[in-house]
Design goal:
The protein has about 375 residues and is mostly beta strands. The chain has one helix and 24 strands. The longest helix is centred in the first third of the chain and has 6 residues, at about 50-55.
Length: about 375
């Protein structure tokens, strides 16, 4: 709710009265194919986002997840996070869409050029439980190029809210996907430290942070789930909702995503990254957060231009790029480039070779 009678400072407190009987039972809402719909938690209790998604998508791989006869929407929830409290003029908005799927969540960034696109990030990652009155978007739109073992048409139909999706969960941030976050106008970080997190989700997750020449950011999530593939998996993969002029995204099935789920992080796994920048300059990709990742797992950015790989476990990958789109140049991989010693005989008794591993030229 927003607005007051007359004029008042935005820092003033106001009493808002809710009138009516609290919702209970099944609540159906219609949505047609090719559309977005702004909905929200209709109950006087928290809503389990995972159960909501499962009730509104078809069975996925192994028949363990979806419960509906059709994919009512594309399986992703989009939460508008408004960082600025200044006013309600669109041009002054600072915010973006935080996104959630069965794989987890990513925070919002302010990258939409129709608003005050500062490049700031929201600092709040959506968690499993949706608090009372929290609104979010669902949509029935996916790129026509999407295909794969679990990808089927997004048919639209009846969005199902059920009492079985309701839980008792206090509004709080846990940083472990067990909290209930309301996306009010604040960019404050999660209050719990890594040492105090109790993570009940054992799946491996990697969050990357992209920084652009003009100071824009993007957080991407990739995780491992046995019910997914490297193709589009409804309920797990999230198409990017607010692509900016300078941005990074996952690419598969010729489409762009902010969340991707795969079934392994093996050494042969390669995950394609797309980058678009409007101004030449320094691009940075680093690990923002790891969950359930063994210290022995090496994570690299691969540059397909020369096949070189760059370890990002400790340091960011940085490169100067010209303005433009880079849709097939960079990959997230889990093994380094195989390097060999090149030996040449110059004259009898004198040998030279280049040791690429240490960047040294040897003469014997």
């Amino acid at each position: 709710m927003k607005g007051v009678h007359g004029s008042a400072a935005f820092t003033d407190f106001h009493n808002l009265t809710f009138v009516g009987r609290p919702n209970n039972g099944n609540i159906p809402l219609s949505i047609t194919a090719g559309n977005d719909r702004l909905i929200g938690n209709p109950y006087p209790s928290a809503l389990d986002a995972d159960e909501f998604i499962k009730d509104n998508i078809k069975e996925t791989i192994n028949g363990k997840v979806g419960r509906n006869s059709v994919n009512v929407f594309n399986g992703a929830l989009y939460f508008w996070h408004h960082f600025s409290k200044t006013n309600h003029n669109l041009g002054d908005y600072i915010g973006g869409y935080a996104t959630y799927t069965l794989m987890g969540g990513v925070q919002a960034v302010s990258s939409d050029t129709r608003i005050n696109a500062t490049g700031d990030s929201g600092g709040r990652v959506p968690e499993r439980y949706i608090p009372v009155n929290e609104g979010f978007f669902v949509n029935t739109t996916v790129d026509a190029t999407l295909a794969g073992e679990t990808a089927t048409d997004i048919a639209g139909g009846t969005i199902q809210f059920k009492n079985s999706q309701r839980v008792f969960e206090l509004e709080r941030s846990t940083g472990s996907n067990t909290g209930s976050l309301f996306f009010k106008g604040s960019s404050s970080k999660n209050t719990q430290t890594a040492a105090t997190k109790t993570n009940t989700d054992p799946r491996k997750k990697i969050r990357l942070k992209f920084s652009s020449p003009e100071g824009y950011y993007r957080q991407l999530l990739v995780g491992v789930d046995e019910n997914t593939t490297n193709n589009f998996d409804v309920g797990y993969d999230a198409p990017i909702a607010d692509l900016g002029n300078e941005d990074m995204f996952w690419i598969f099935n010729e489409s762009k995503f902010v969340i991707q789920a795969v079934n392994n992080f093996n050494k042969d796994q390669e995950l394609q990254l797309g980058i678009t920048i409007s101004e030449a300059g320094l691009v940075s990709i680093k690990i923002d957060e790891l969950e359930n990742i063994d210290e022995s797992l090496e994570i690299y950015i691969k540059d397909n231009l020369d096949g070189e790989t760059y370890n990002i476990n400790q340091n960011a990958f940085e490169i100067n790029l010209d303005a433009g789109e880079y849709l097939d140049r960079f990959m997230l991989v889990f093994k380094p480039r195989l390097k060999t010693l090149q030996e040449v005989t110059l004259i009898e008794g004198i040998h030279t070779f280049m040791n690429n591993a240490t960047s040294e030229f040897h003469i014997k």
